[in-house]
């Protein structure tokens, strides 16, 4: 039996991440800090081996992967797959967190539709939201897991496409006997991790996906 490896990591901080905006399917480049984070991931993966690498169409995942690949001449195949792209926030793509929070304070907030979006705010912004909602209501915000924001994706919809990617990925790895690296976005990784670790919805939405580290999984072939 051969033990193959999956190394999956989030892109470094982007200009939208820095400025507190929902990025979604909009394209945005890494900040100087994001480049440092990408280099940190690259150093941590320096002694790992993989033959295939994935990124999405977004430049942030390509930029991050570029730094990682500097240490991996053995990786001779690079593939693009948008099943691992960031969650689409629909009408909220590009919206500032401060505007989102202001609507909560004005009671223009639909918890059953957009509640789980709070999990993608910064820790500072989450504390601001809790002031308006109260602790009990705040703890129930994952209820929106199956309901998308207007013209966007729910977590459940992201999970469906990520599950399709995982099925394809494992088949590819076993057939070709290769290990892989994946440069992706926070919410796609959140659902990737949920599926492989058989975690609950509540657990998944509460995870913080780091900018400067990676997750490792083993596939037996």
Index terms:
221 residues; alpha/beta; 5 strands; five-stranded mixed beta sheet; globular
Radius of gyration: 18 Å
Q: What is the fourth-level CATH superfamily of the largest domain?
A: Phosphoglycerate mutase-like
Write down how many β-strands occur, each being a DSSP E stretch of 2 or more residues: 5
Mean pLDDT over all positions: 88
For the largest sheet, list the strands in their spatial order: 3-2-4-1-5
Structural class designation: alpha/beta
Number of domains: 2
Q: What name does CATH use for the topology of the largest domain? A: Rossmann fold
Number of helices: 10
Short description:
The protein is α/β, with parallel strands linked by helices. 44% of the residues lie in helices and 13% in strands. It has helices spanning 15-19, 32-44, 59-69, 97-105, 111-114, 123-133, 135-138, 155-176, 186-197, 201-206; strands at residues 3-10, 52-55, 77-80, 180-184, 214-220.
Description:
44% of the residues lie in helices and 13% in strands. The protein is of the alpha/beta class and 221 residues long. It has two domains: 146 residues, Phosphoglycerate mutase-like (Rossmann fold, 3-Layer(aba) Sandwich), CATH 3.40.50.1240; 55 residues, no CATH class. Strands 3-2-4-1-5 form a five-stranded mixed beta sheet. Strand 2, helix 3 and strand 3 form a beta-alpha-beta unit. Helix 2 crosses helix 3, helix 4 runs parallel beside helix 6 and helix 8 packs across helix 9. The termini are close together.
């Amino acid at each position: 039996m051969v033990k193959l490896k999956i190394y999956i990591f989030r892109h470094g901080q982007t200009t939208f991440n820095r400025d507190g905006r929902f990025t979604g399917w909009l394209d945005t480049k890494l900040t100087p800090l994001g480049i440092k984070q990408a280099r940190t991931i690259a150093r941590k993966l320096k002694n790992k081996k993989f033959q295939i690498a994935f990124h999405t169409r977004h430049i942030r995942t390509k930029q991050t992967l570029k730094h990682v690949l500097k240490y991996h001449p053995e990786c001779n195949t690079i593939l693009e797959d948008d099943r691992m792209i960031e969650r689409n926030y629909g009408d909220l793509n590009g919206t500032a967190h401060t505007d989102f929070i202001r609507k909560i304070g004005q009671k223009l907030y639909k918890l059953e539709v957009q509640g789980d979006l709070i999990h993608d705010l910064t820790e500072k912004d989450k504390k601001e939201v809790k002031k308006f909602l109260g602790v009990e209501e705040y703890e129930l915000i994952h209820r929106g897991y199956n309901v998308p924001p207007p013209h966007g994706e729910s977590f459940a919809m992201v999970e469906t496409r990520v599950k399709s990617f995982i099925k394809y990925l494992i088949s590819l790895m076993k057939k070709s006997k290769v290990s892989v690296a994946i440069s992706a976005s926070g919410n796609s990784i959140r659902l990737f991790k949920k599926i492989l670790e058989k975690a609950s919805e509540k657990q998944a939405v509460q995870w913080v996906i780091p900018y400067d580290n990676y997750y490792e999984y083993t596939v037996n072939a």
